[in-house]
Each structure stands twice: as structure tokens, then as C-alpha cells.
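Run log, item B.
One chain of 337 residues. Sequence copied directly from the ordering sheet:
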Amino acid sequence: MIGVEHGPSNRPNASRRALASLLSASILLAACHAGPTASPVRIEAARAELRDLISDVTAATAYRYRAKDDLGRDMGPLEVVWIPEASAFAGVYHTWSDTDEMFHLQVATSTNLLDWTWQVELASQASQPSIEAASDGGYVVAWEQEPDPIHMVIASFASWEDLRGGKVARRFDVPVTMPACGEGTPSIEAASAKRVDLSFHYHAGCERDLQARGSTDWKTWHATMRKDLDHALIDLGVLGHIGDRDSIMFRGHDLTLVEGQRVVDDWSSWRMFLYDAETSAAEELHVKTQAGSVSFANPTIDQIKINGRDAILVTLFIFSEGSHGGEDGELIYYRYL
């Protein structure tokens, strides 16, 4: 056996075995250093990992409570997108004006996600914005528009320069089609010049916000209820509104961060839940803040790169009811992976 293994005719096989071993080691090393979406894991494991990453603000790499823009205005619910042309992040948010007693939709930029420089106002009587880079170029913004009936507006901008200048390329006012008094809090899931997909809530029976999803080709609109998501939270004892939500692809699975009001008309009872459509399961997130606030709403979540590293970015709004230590307002935090 020794003579056979070391004979001249077996040297190529030995070389192949050595090469195979080297390749196997390289693949294993690459897997160990892969990002969070590189190798799919079981949905339960992915959900548990994401829960642990985002539930503890005290373990975040960086955070900012009561976020304000450089004009000193409180930033309402904030959603962030990376702008390659500007080498910066852009955020859409609303501010409140005591002068006209209206919400105004704003755009600001940041390089560190904590300090924000105002750029432009996009609309008045407008709130709860969402933003997405269009797959074929440009940007799409959606928001909740007043007056009654409260409805959603979707607008496209051909470039970053057009967005920061407030130059709308196309606008679509979404008709209210659910059995509701109004529809709002859009979250854009995908966008292009041909189609926009988003999730939203509808004010069912003029009593309770519930979940829906819709799409448009910029001319027509189609929407459906998301009863699976509603029931997942109702089964956990959510008796009030089920409102804003945002999704992320994590470890090969689509996971949704969603707000739910446990007690009707009790603002201190707003909580965060993590939902996955694969198992139709949801779980409450016990978010830990520096001062122990408990009331959270208007979540956004995204995987980003900052300072050359992958991170999970989360924004939440903390209601004064249920807040502690002056933490009420917009919370921004991210954690390196």
C-alpha cells in the first residue's frame, strides 16, 4: 500500500486530493466570513438572530434619541436610503408646524446616520413617508396625504438632484379601495418606472388599522388584505391598531418588523413584533433602551454599509406615553454584523 500511494503513477491523484482539500478549506473559510444573507438558515434561527440583533439598543454600535434635523426640528418617523451619487444617506420624515398646524414632508442627508442636514420639503399635509431606490434608476417616495379621505401618494424622481430639488417626474394618488375610512403609512417594497409594490394599513370600519398590500403600474391600482399578518398579532393579544411595518431579507428569509397596539386608545401600549410569512408566526420584541422606554411605533429596518462594514439599521418612534428618561421622539440606531 505504501508503494502504491507513493508510486509515480499516483502523483496526479495525490495532487488532485491536495487541491480538493485546499478548495474545501477555502470554501469553509469563505462560508465563515460570509455576510448574513450568504447561506440560508432555518427561518426560526434567522428570526431569533435578527431579534437578538435589534432588540437591545444598549448594545448598538451607535444610536441617537430624539433625532432632529439641523434646523432643530423633531424628525417624525424616518426612513433612510443610501444615495451613491452623494456618498451619503438620505432620509424622508415629517415635521409638525404650529403655524399652519400641518405635517410637512422633508428630505435630509447624513453621512453618519445621527446628524441630519435638511435639503427640501416635498409636500404639505403629508406624513408617514417611505423611500426606495428605483431598480431602473432614480428614487420613489410614498406618503400619507390629507385632507380626507386620507390616502397615499406615490411620486418618482429621476435622479438624486431632482429629489433634493423636489422635482417630481411622476405622481400617482392611490385610490382608497379597502372597506375603510382611509389608507396610509406606506412602506415601499420594490419600485421602478413600470411598477411599485408597497404595504400599508387601512382604517377598517373607521375603527381599527389593519394590514394590506398593493401595487400600481402608475395608472391602475390593485390591493389585497393581509389577514395572515393581522391574525398573527391578534393571536398575541393585540386589541388595538396594527399599523406601520417594514421588511428585510435576512439569512435568505423575508422578515417583517411591525407595530401593534395592545390596548385600544392606549398610546403607552404600542409594541414591536417580528413576523415571518413562511410560518405565519409573530413574536413580541422586548426592546431594551438606555432608560427603559416601552412604547414603540413606526419601525424601519434595513441592512446597510457604514464605515465599510455591514450593519443592521433600525428607526423607531417612541411615544411620550411609555417613554422614560427623555427618550421620546425618533430613535435611530445601528449595529455592526
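Observations after the first pass:
- Helices lie at 2-6, 11-32, 43-54, 160-164, 227-234.
- DSSP finds five helices and 20 strands in the chain.
Flagged for discussion on Thursday.
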